[in-house]
User: Fold these one by one.
Assistant:
Number 1:
Amino acid sequence: MVVVLLAANEERGAALRAFARGADGAAVRRGLTAERFHGREGQVVTVTIAGARRRLLCVVGLGDAAALDVDAWRRAAGRARQAAERHGAARVAIAVDERASSIEHIVALAEGFDLAGYRFDKYKSDAEHGVLVGELTLLTPTPLPAADVARRLGGVATAVTAVGTVRDLVNEPAAVKTPTFIAATAERLAADAGVEVEIWDRARIERERLAGLLAVARGSNEEPRFIRMRWRGPGARRRVALVGKGITFDSGGLSLKPAKAMETMKTDMAGGAAVIATMVAAGRMQLAIDVDGFVPATENLPGGKAQKPGDVIRFRNGKSVEVLNTDAEGRLILADALALAAADKPDLIIDLATLTGACIVALGPQVAGIYGNEQAVVDRLVTLGRETGEPLWQLPLVPEYRDDIKSPVADLKNIGGGNAGSITAALFLQEFVAGRPWVHMDIAGPAFTDKELPYAPKGGTGFGVRILLRYLAELAATPPDVPPRAAASHARPRRKPPLAAKRR
Ligand code: BES
Ligand code: MN
Ligand code: ZN
């Protein structure tokens, strides 16, 4: 299948003529007219053209030429992949014009194409094992430096694999992906990436006084796990902590969710999965940065020993919290992890969590909320998100709303006053970062999609992984005192005693 990408109203231009002349050209024009193809974003027309063999010409709309960003090409390549799968085309060639001939664009096209190939069909009895798309050729107007292209495509493959890991874990039923399963998966994946993993069982979690994780785990028969991962990059000059929410199923606990709201709650470990996959990819890419991963994992169920509204728990940083709603469990397990992460004094903490329905109300299903106490870092991540097609929108840490999470009986309560639920959740988390540079992404919306997207089928999306990998790679390549910076990293403290990192 040959793919031609056209922006709005380019259907009469010269681009098509190179691939369909004479009678073929007429057939393509008829096809485009019949489908009213005008290059709008999302329009896809596939025409069979004559010749020695049956060949397909697929025309994909890019939308308004003036608004073409890198992700528009990534999305178009994803749509081309979807069309190829529909038509059983095993080999695909995308004709790339001057507008998309930089390495950045080539990489985005390959990435969109690869990401769109994801399937989760292990539980389908009639999964099609027919022709699978096996090859992509990019026809560029000018040659590109082969070594650079090869290196960047290697990065694409690693990132796409990481996204696939997250999608697999999110899509897996909660009955399978227990906290123990997630921990074992982290160990297995990290082993050949040179990333060190430490799994804390309940006894260790008790000794470490992870009060939030223990409180949430009370209602479940599944053992909780706390997953610690360490990547020590060669020549690293910075250290970043990644924290991810790992609720493998969120029933709400005793503050039970309605049935409808529970349907997708196996997704509630998407932040944790993103952290695990990013750590593994950082190791595979040998990124010159130190990264520490923290993933608290448990179910949130209403068993006989479940925590009850009104219970008070005390965290390792000394703060007490009145649990008024057991469905606001994410912030409880993240509080432990953030406090632990902050104690190591990293240059930056980034957490990802499917934290609040309120964030979906505010930003809809495709945009994540981002918060932080370092504006330069937030700005940089927002920009990267635009480039990777993982949109982030900054929401404010309104200091006045801190009053909403004050409790009459404890230092804090785990819910706000009813409004601005994503903000009060973020303010709660901020209480546990000990003033360290910190960014929080509320990915409740985009972690999961209930409709097919240009390069993600229904289900887990892997949101956040590509932003994180880009950002880590960028930090690794930037001297500590040059922006974008992870503040306060000029005088990097001496390395602590070796962390026994297994490296290959
Ligand atoms: N996991 C949910 C948030 C969520 C909702 C993620 C929808 C994805 C889709 C979280 O644990 C939760 O239940 N939050 C509550 C907080 C409330 C009780 C303060 C919410 O958003 O309703
Ligand atoms: Mn919940
Ligand atoms: Zn939750």
Note: Confidence is low (pLDDT under 50) at residues 485-504.
Number 2:
Amino acid sequence: MFTLAIVGRPNVGKSTLFNRLVGKRLALVDDQPGVTRDLREGEARLGDLRFTVIDTAGLEDARDDSLPARMRRLTERAVEMADICLFVVDARAGILPDDRVFAEILRRKNAHVILAANKAEGTAAEAGVLEAWELGLGEPLPLSAEHGEGLGDLFHVLTPLADAYAARAAAEEPEEPVTDLTVDAETDADLPAYRAPTPQRPLQVAVVGRPNAGKSTLINALIGEDRLLTGPEAGITRDAISVSFDWGGTPTRIFDTAGMRKKARVQDKVEKLSVADGLRAVKFAEVVVVLLDAAIPFEQQDLRIADLAEREGRAVVVAVNKWDAETDRQGKLRDLKEAFERLLPQLRGAPLVTVSALTGRGLDRLQDAVVKAHEVWNRRVPTARLNRWLADMTAAHPPPAPGGRRIRLRYMTQAKTRPPGFVVMCSHPDKLPASYTRYLVNGLRDDFDMPGTPIRLWMRSQS
Ligand code: GDP
Ligand code: GDP
């Protein structure tokens, strides 16, 4: 168990996030004398994580000056009480002077900081998320507390920390500070190299698909019949049921939504609810396996979930199940590939693997594809190579010149991984047509071998 403090200036969404993490499990307000009385504390749940969360919201009522001394003092107090600070900024408002005051407090206190850019739903917030890099606190995690988006990413960031705190508690070494656990504090120039999954940090996979596509059969084939039926680890979570196992030598944690689907069936809202469950699983996964039934592939629901996985920034592998029942396999495969390209252009190049969950055929190839997709999702391209590439791309096909002034793409760097995200310094980014951005994204995909992963590309003006 660890303690997380949510800090940040008023109105960025701290309470909204607190309420989302804690729900109705709000602890009684601490009655100790002194300042703690003003801090709300609750027991948070996120996936199978449990931790204590401290909220510093509601302190802004004392409106003495721009950042009341009281709020500053309470924030410092919360930081001292917490193991980890979730520093929230407002991606819509951008970075304000008060945000820098908080960043300074956190730096001075030497706090372990996770930076979150809230209100990040929709495209209006993209610039703000990017701007948050300027705080020098590492990669901003886009969140939408109100819409519940980005919580899967928060879960991924917190999981290794939670494991470390649990290990530390077990080892009874409370005086040992956790110093080597910087949370992907990557800067533009220094993204981490690919780290292969470990038993502590398994590759997180979700299997999603329509009812009867064969999800349960597949998961049972992978982990062995009994484990799923006799109650997987972390079965208590309300978000998704997960099981950890060794998949062809790779520590893997797989999320299953079948249990919830069964419940949904009772409620006779199968379609609607299973999409919601799939969505939940997608949020917790790094790689999403979209499982199709070969007999009825690419139905509306399959497309919706694949698209959602892409929008959530997950790596996607399409698995076509029940291949054992197909007779004209060659013709079928041709049709499938054609339909895939036509219906899901945003997932161009994503692997399509034919499997039989029933006989076990193709499951090795599925595993290969999942590991490869994970690796690509973590891909890092050196800045020097990117800029040589950008020069070639703009020479081969120059950007347009609206009003006679050519848009210049000057410089490019990779700002993030998981999925790969790139920033291009550009004159008049607002005038650059979407077709040109697509040209660059497709080029990145082909030239740096990044099939099947969402690629983010931001145009930023140099000012
Ligand atoms: P706090 O002062 O930091 O605790 O902020 P609140 O949680 O009270 O939120 C301030 C305002 O931002 C409220 O009107 C919320 O509804 C809104 N808000 C919170 N989270 C989000 C979000 O993810 N997206 C958007 N658009 N608004 C949000
Ligand atoms: P879920 O609803 O996605 O979890 O699907 P199930 O795993 O419950 O499978 C639905 C039905 O499809 C069951 O009758 C399975 O036996 C059948 N099924 C699953 N995988 C295969 C397969 O690879 N080949 C064939 N022929 N049938 C399968």
Note: The mean pLDDT is 79.
Number 3:
Amino acid sequence: MGAKVPEPRQNDPDTLARQIVEKMTYSICKHPEQARKYDWLRAVTLVVRDRIIDRWFASTDRIRQSKDKRVYYLSMEFLIGRLLRDAINNLQLTGAIREALKRYNVELDMVELLEPDAALGNGGLGRLAACFMESMASTGVPGVGYGIRYVHGFFRQEIAEGAQVELPETWLVHGNPWEFERRDSTYEIGFGGKVLTQQEPGKPPRHVWRPAERVLAVAYDTPIVGWRGEQVNTLRLWSAQAVDPILLDAFNSGDHIGALVESNKAEAITRVLYPADSHQAGQELRLRQEYFFSAASLQDIIRRHLGENDSLDNLADKVAIQLNDTHPAVSVAELMRLLVDVHGYEWGKAWEITRATFGYTNHTLLPEALEHWPINLFERLLPRQMQIIYQINADVIREASQKGFDGSQISAISLIDEGHGRRVRMGQLAFVGSHAVNGVSALHTELMKETVFRNLHDLYRDRIQNKTNGVTPRRWLMESNPGLTGLLTEAIGPGFLDDVEKLRDADPLAGDAGFRDRFAAVKRANKARLADVISDRLAITLDPDAIFDIQVKRIHEYKRQFLNIIEAIALYNQIRAHPEKDWTPRVKIFAGKAAPSYVQAKEIIHLANDVARVINSDPSVRDLLKVVFIPNYNVSLAEIIMPAADLSEQISTAGLEASGTGNMKFALNGALTIGTLDGANVEMLEHVGEDNIFIFGLKADEVAQRRRETHSGRSIIERTPLLREAVNAISTGVFCPESPARYHTLVSSLYNNDWWMICADFEAYWETQRHLDELFLRQDEWQAKAIRNTARMGWFSSDRSIREYATDIWHAGPGKRA
Ligand code: 26W
């Protein structure tokens, strides 16, 4: 029976003000006069939440009654950030709540900033999942996100004497008003034990897994509000709990600590997010996390399906499951186990259902980031799933040999890597278990076909397709840049709020001097806002009229923050050597976290801070150059940074950045891009046009070629004075006189193999930067290009990405009603 849809609540400031005070009184138990700022946050959140709940019920009912196909997005990470502003914006309550709070002398912006970030992700992959959740709700796709409710999200970064220090993150300490615990959606998850095989004559053997350990998965639901509140979807995160919270026998015999061992072990599964996005951790706990959330999600999906359907025969008609990288890939084996062992399906039929249900998105080609698990660990933890993987593998290998694949091709296809102490290859498992496999930009998808999945692509020619990433324009334009949103609304009308591709209407305004001035004024205000944040946090004063040249993202060698720092040093040297020249004032801003175990990445952070200290305190620079490293980069900081950039650094070694999404956020907010032909930069070039983006350096095939030729940086350093002087300055301790050998390893990597092509690309990068210096002095031209970037970035909305997934992979969503 459908719940009655409640009367819409009044959204005028009077009603909102009254309700906020009501919450303050009866839910928080404070008199408004005694209320502290966190009480206001809570009261406003509760008022907004009530409105969301009404719509959430309505959406859930509508989807259930329509019997439409549902989409389940399985992801180890959801980097959602704050939710209040997103909810208020999408419900279009911003003005009314601001007004309501003013009556109590409270600023909405202040209140919004008190909310902790939900940092349940590392970087690109997790943030993409968050944009996709918002876009599914906004485009009317009935989507549920499944993930892990980490008690500690991504670590907090501090910089102490220039170096990264990791501190635990504790987003849940003050409670989380956005989540609802669902005790009635609790499942048992098994680990270890053995597999019993029952053989009846004339029948295939039956397998029963008897796990040695059991853990409970408890659901926590968070509403995800779509644009204009028309649909509210669910993000369901799993939390681990012990089946027996206290071992009574142990407790009664006086072993009070021992009585808690089991619950500690169980709860450890969802305690902390692994902070590495480039190296496989390879730890047992990580595999436990992966299986835990996959198995819980599948049980939940099947239970819901069987509540509405007679059998699992039509699972793939009603359910699409997207695997966000290989982290949930064990789901392929688990669904096979559920279908065959638990629901009695014949193997071939089960495989057909499984493949038709899953889709797999690949987000990286870096060999060190591809997941593979030692067979003995896998077998010990998941014995039945291991048997199933062997059987899937046998089928795949048989098919390949029948099609004439040779030994080396078959060993590349195999789900088992025989080379490195026998391992399960999760990429191969996800690939063969899915009907569609996608890359996240056009270039990345082509490289997938040529590299990691070359042989599987030969075997299954139609399986790989491209789905270029996108970002949600609600968070990354409307909410983070209200100034620009207001200006655009005045200039081209509000149509772009519903269809961001209508930003195109602003394109001709690049030729309108008045509009250029207003566009520049918005940018300047955003730069001043960022300068204030930097002044508060770091006591560094910035000139908002300098070029704000920004690189914010995870710190990784392939992303080449090191190249950017070397260029800063070369510029520093030139400014001092040629004080007579007309240098364009520039501020180089960095932010990002390094994986705690990634030594080189941490050295790069240290170097950025060392260089900043020396340059910023050198009077001979006369403020023509400043270098800033902002600690603790996260979603909320990104919301302040993206609108404040003149220049966006997207300078990865070509062929290595799968897509990038920061590149899109910057350009949407009117930054010009300096970048390589990598990831989605390639498509950004096609959309904004070559006059409006600044591409330099080796292309992906040239990088691959040079690597085959054992290219070295030494000869380039020796013949390039600018580079040589900069590198010498680092290696002689100019930036760290207290410890001159600090960057020895970093520098020798340049001389030896220059694996990341920093030396190879230095000159092209330097020249492009100097060209940009000149361009910035011609503000009319610069602003015209910036406007064209904003106007032409509409295609990079995650609404477009989601519509493509819905049409080509999921066969679900509006227009695809079953
Ligand atoms: C197993 C350790 C591990 C953890 C996370 C390996 C790899 C990952 C992620 C796949 C890394 C990641 O976030 N990749 C990024 O995904 C973004 C969204 O598609 C892309 O825009 C980035 O280019 C890509 O680096």
Note: DSSP finds 33 helices and 24 strands in the chain.
Number 4:
Amino acid sequence: SYGFETVSGREEKQARVDEVFHRVASRYDLMNDLMSAGMHRLWKDALVNWLAPSRRPGWKFIDVAGGTGDVAFRIVEASHRAAQGTVLDINASMLGVGAERAGKRKLDGNLTFVEGNAEELKLPDGEFDAYTIAFGIRNVPRIDKALAEAYRVLKPGGRFLCLEFSEVDMPLVDRFYDLWSFKAIPAIGDLVTKDRASYEYLVESIRRFPDQEHFAAAIREAGFERVTYRNLSGGIAAMHSGWKL
Ligand code: SAM
């Protein structure tokens, strides 16, 4: 448990998260670039490289907490536009921006945007070849529920891949990262969105998320096998992989 055991605690957390993303949706992509100094692009590329999407027609993936579509666009492009994807997010404002971007890139034929909750996917069992979630799972109040749902909707042989902020394992990076996240991120948030509190919350949520090993254990607990992870930028972010075998 991560401090949201009670029903009201969970609802409060989700409500807070929803409010943050409704408020920032239109500036979300710009904020991502500013706050990560563009690094989120490299991390998302690394995730999609590790996934190595199939070019087989009919190969299906779901990108949960897919927001404005960044990961889904990369997957479709890496599959040479063969993949069919579902972008699922709890927040209609984020999905709206995503659907508009997909149209501009002529990727709307490959993607379906669906409003839904990672804790309770209203989708059939064994539907997808891959399940991805990038910078989303730490926002979900019950991580174990989200992982169980990921397992359920994957086909046997399907792959789970998660990209998330993690625990920095390099002394110097650590010091710089503390300064960056506690000082710079709220200041940039204030400047661009006039919403310092949302970004303070964001930094908090990153600090509370389990480290690489604990998160790997939670993924195994959900039933996944061959669970491994790779650190990115000294552990500022990490990618976790697991298989439904
Ligand atoms: N994956 C995108 C990316 O990497 O740019 C968006 C990440 S954004 C930091 C987090 C997203 O998680 C938001 O769009 C938010 O609405 C979504 N989210 C939060 N709680 C969720 C839940 N319970 N189920 C599905 N999506 C959720």
Note: The pocket of S-adenosylmethionine is lined by residues 17, 21, 32, 64-67, 70-71, 89-91, 94, 117-119, 134-136, 139-140 (CB under 6 Å).
